[in-house]
Model the fold of this input.
Amino acid sequence: MITGASEGIGAACAHALRERGARLALVARSEAKLRAVAGSDDLAVPADLTKAKDRERAVHNAISHFGHIDILINNAGAGLYAPSWQAPMDEVRRMYELNFFAPLEMIHLVVPGMRARREGMIVNVASIAGKVTLPWLTLYSASKYALGSLTDGLRMELRRDGIHTITVCPGYVSTAFQDHVLSGQPPEHVRRTKMFKITPERCARDIVKGMERRARTIVTPASGWAFVILERLFPNWIDRRLEDIYFRGLKTS
Ligand SMILES: NC(=O)c1ccc[n+]([C@@H]2O[C@H](COP(=O)([O-])OP(=O)(O)OC[C@H]3O[C@@H](n4cnc5c(N)ncnc54)[C@H](OP(=O)(O)O)[C@@H]3O)[C@@H](O)[C@H]2O)c1
Done:
């Protein structure tokens, strides 16, 4: 089951996994876009993942159709560009519903079946912003840190049940993500950046490869690890560089 499969990274994952022979349950709100992505053996389940009834229906339909769910890819998510000290709280809560609570509640729905079969995989699509806080995306970063921490904890909780969990941390992927943000716009410098920018197809390839080797964390592109390691070793220096990018962008936009 792939959430957020109607476009972007989720749709690219659907194509890559179908090539490997997977049968897919694809979830997103837009039925028309889902149908365009779905192959003849796939199940398209239009659903708003921030609604409990929709989540339950999506999982129920997939299990009725396929018998069980082997792998859950929690990919649906959205951004929010705003200084955290003045962010619109309704939008912040909406973002957390989608980026954190929806994946957690999907996990609640699929784990009992996986535990009963003593196998399963949960792939949570976080972000490089969930490894290094980006000041133009502070609250989004916080939601992705939360998702990464959840994924690490689940791995320890569920290893004995044969269930593996993976955090995916993409850098910039050329999707419509920036057009779909819940509030605000990135500074112009950030919008134009090419740093770590990859296609959704490349991102999906890295995700599938990571799933095959049962990785713990997938950073895509792998060069993003350098950014993560630099931040761990020289946090003040990285803070200053990110501040420079943020405030330079604010002045010119
Ligand atoms: N693009 C990047 O640079 C980047 C970098 C790091 C991490 N990520 C993460 O990667 C994931 C995918 O991002 P993307 O770039 O592919 O974004 P995208 O192109 O905007 O796609 C988002 C997907 O989520 C679905 N979605 C949004 N709200 C939903 C809801 N309430 N219920 C069900 N589905 C919903 C959308 O479909 P509908 O509109 O049809 O519902 C769409 O399929 C996100 O978690 C994002 O945070 C992206």
